[in-house]
User: What shape does this take?
Amino acid sequence: MKKLFSRYGVLIVTALLLIGAFIVNMNTSSDADDVVETVAGSAEKMEEKAAVGQAEATNTQENYFEAFRQERSDTRAIEIECLDEVIATSGSDAETLADAQEQKLALVENMEKEFTVESLIKAKGFHDVAVTFHAGSVNVIVDSEALDDRQVAQILDIVMRETGESADNIKIQTGN
Assistant: This one.
């Protein structure tokens, strides 16, 4: 029990130190205010784009996949823009810079996996598909009335092979 408390104690102290370092860095950096304003502005842009995307998605089922991809693309562009701003800020410390670069790289890798999985599933004869990938979670929406066991197995095989995720982390559903 004592080990458990000491582990959590170390984690809590580390978290508090990181938060404190972040606050000090934000207060001492003249460029930090610009970064915060940029992040806040980007968040507002993301909310606006999401509202537009949701309105577009309700039009028809045929347009759902197109609207979904457009919304995803717009959201990713804003995320990348925000990360680029942090990377370009001369006042960013090495840790913040490395974290922003790592997040941008992970985002680009996720985008590539989504595109690859969508393309491979379409190559199996499905009319359209939308995929979202995050470490530990893959969602697949297939433009089909229903999927039989063979089709689900095909999709699952593609997703597992291309993302490295286990079957437990993959959700497949129809878009109709």
In short: The chain is about 70% helix and 10% strand. Residues 112 and 133 are 10 Å apart (CA to CA).
